[in-house]
Hints:
The protein is 29% helix and 36% strand. With 170 residues, the chain is an alpha+beta fold. Residues 1-21 form the signal peptide.
Amino acid sequence: xxxxxxxxxxxxxxxxxxxxxxxxxxxxxxxxxxxxxxxxxxxxxxxxxxxxxxxxxxxxxxxxxxxxxxxxxxxxxxxxxxxxxxxxxxxxxxxxxxxxxxxxxxxxxxxxxxxxxxxxxxxxxxxxxxxxxxxxxxxxxxxxxxxxxxxxxxxxxxxxxxxxxxxxxx
Length: 170
């Protein structure tokens, strides 16, 4: 019985040393992860952070295009990254370039104050392995209603200026 308990304790210790949280700052810097095929969790997870304000959580595929990712917070699905568009044999080594290119999947979520433990899995991985990045940006995250109001206001101003210009010419 003692040997069994000792073996279980040693196994739990070995497992616990393999699973570790990666605290990340919320300053917008990218943090990398890898995965080893469809259905496999990201290595070096979970990514943990605590917020006292709103922030933008962004995840993107990197290197070889074609992967799609499922992102979770505390075990609850936040959502999937976009479906990659175009070829699956393209390469990019910059998180920011991958984020702007539809051949690499990405997604962003506006999140509020609280403690976060972000994990993920690959749901599409044509290469069998892959990598990506995660970042959290705090600060001025525009509210959807504010952005809509700003856009409508700018459109109205543009129409008014166009009419004034047409009246001045005619």
